[in-house]
Amino acid sequence: MTYVMTALTMPKFGLAMTEGKLSSWTIAPGGAVREGDEVADIETSKITSGYESPASGVLRRQVALAGETLPVGALLGVVADADVPEAEIDAFIASFRAESTEEGEETAEATSSEPKMVEVGAHRLNVRDVGRGEGPPLLLIHGFGGDLSNWMLNQDVLARHQRVIAFDLPGHGASSKDVGDGSLTFLAEAAAGLLQALDIPKAHVLGHSLGGAVALCLLRDAPDSVVTLTLVAPAGLERAVNVESLKAMVESDRTRDMQQALQALVHDKSLVGRKMADNVLKVRRLDGAREALRTIAATCFANGQQTDDLRPVLDAASVPVRLFWGEEDEILPVAGAKNAPDTVVKYILPEIGHMPQLEKTVEFNRIVEGFLEENA
């Protein structure tokens, strides 16, 4: 008789992640789980997040103990049906540990998902392209001062059933630093150019913060290229913006100051540690990085307000739209959600800040995944 058993393994949340700490189990042995249920908390140098079960069944075995730090790919536990004999579970665990090719396979997988540079006109864009699928891929657009690592808890999960592409906007991350006039239109042209360079005629588009405004401009300027639109605390729907926090995220030059600046992005301040601040500072110190962000800020947030009003774009949208916003957003007030038309399905999240994709990861991924499946 053939039994179906699923290994729970240490996930690879971040691009540079090589190990993680099993902070705690949230499901006891013998507990029933559904695919997508949170079964454990994983702690990395950047963030603590829930780990979703990749399968439905019963948590038959907790192989790793809470508090253990383990390499990516290490066995944490086993999910199987209740009628699978204990001897079969033991054999499964032994076989998993004995596979001599496991390390090589994990290394090959990590290498294949590393970012690469893509020439897009005058730009060199840092792109991470993962997953496969026959339908239109999903394009992820990060916010002001961010980079493709802002999707570290989302991209690989969403790529289980389709192709998902994240990239650094011009002036951000490892991409080239020319941002032209710093306008949303300029950034949207770069996004459209990336789709063309990758030979993608149509894509689902998901944008956060400034990236949400870029996504709206992409819909406005290249409507035939957008299949669905998912917005996360997008710019362009309200005039108010916390320019002081944005300025601090650009100009801070000490770890402690940068950590305090980044904490404005989340409601749970403990999510932002010193290592995250150090990583951001390394990017800020690249040639042209701060100047590029200053140019974008001067154009998009002139006189302490948002420059562009993109509500007409959303009012006229003919594609399905989903909107996420944290009630405790300190960067762009949640009041902006009220300016979205009734045709937009809204998820207003209590006790969540400016980055729902990081603070409410499991629910966010589940909703987005379902939305994409509905519109495949």
From TrEMBL:
Domain of life, per lineage: Bacteria
GO terms of molecular function: dihydrolipoyllysine-residue acetyltransferase activity
InterPro entries according to UniProt: AB_hydrolase_1, AB_hydrolase_fold, AB_hydrolase_sf, Biotin_lipoyl, Single_hybrid_motif
Protein's UniProt name: Acetoin dehydrogenase dihydrolipoyllysine-residue acetyltransferase subunit
EC id: 2.3.1.12
Enzyme class at the top of the EC tree: transferase
Any Pfam family matching the protein: Abhydrolase_1
Key words, A-Z: Acyltransferase, Transferase
Segments forming domain Lipoyl-binding: 5-80
